[in-house]
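Appendix B, record 7
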Amino acid sequence: MNIYRYEENPIITPADVTPYHPNFEVIGAFNAGIAQYNGEVLMLLRVAERPISEDPQIVKAPIYNPKTQKLELIELRTDDERYDFSDPRVIRDRTGSSGFTYLTSISYIRIARSKDGHHFTIDEKPFVYPSNEQETFGIEDPRVTQMGDTYYIYFSVISPVGIGESMVSTKDFVNTEHHGMIFSPENKDVIIFPEKINGKYYALHRPTTKSIGNPEIWIAESNNLLYWGNHKHLMGLRKGMWDSGRIGGGAVPFKTDKGWLELYHGATLDHRYCMGAVLLDLNDPTKIIARSDKPVMEPDADYEKKGFFGDVVFSCGVLVEGDIVKMYYGVADTSMACAELSLQEILDSLIYV
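Structure tokens (predicted):
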């Protein structure tokens, strides 16, 4: 697979983003949804900010309080044996009494804008910020589906009761309408197809089971984009392969003459994230036509292998121009990059089922 990584990569790093919160630092600007509006490429960044702690023995956990509409901090000592601080992203309760987890940062959505798709300026304020009880730990990994002049933006929302998927819509990327949670916990990696198929909307989603089953891709249908049903298991993990640990939707599917092409992410059991592809039937996207045997992209560049959480390439959006697929992707849970791939080469690489 021939891959052209932009010379400017990473095109946005945490150093490029001014913190929105006083006494916080930006530790991630990544996993952005992609849209085109008013002659610009818009990157809907997931910005992760972490409170600065002057004492290395204290970790601060930010929580949005919907009653006061303010961000509050909980301070925990690293020598407190009740908590596990081994993962820099989370703080887990060792006692098992509550299973409660804090996050060490809070994420929200901020827009970066570009005329050429290479060089971006970043808005000073958030575009979508936590606003209710389902979003107290933050908003993560947005995707954008355009239908007519309306852009539907949906994202993972995190709170003590779990991770689900909520949605807002906009026509101008200034004003938004909040539609609430469209997939309840535990669920994420929702991807909505950009048009109706035989009179129905379709979405991919990834339930995370806690009893039986694996983190795999499902498909659902809807009459109104808000209430989803007729859920079906679409595709599963493959033992010993690049997508043996977990899989989930990546970019919004797009039409080809062969079928709907979905670029999805897959991880190994040791959390190495790659991008692959699956081809779905144009008239019935519950049917798989072909799937990647090998990744179409895997962590190779230094900025993909090293960062806050290394060995990760994770796309939430692409732009397609003829045979060129411009894949915008998060690297190492830290920054944003872009690469160009050949649509025909992706299709040729698939193994037909």
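Remarks on this record: The chain has a mean pLDDT of 96. Residues 343-349 form the longest helix (7 residues).
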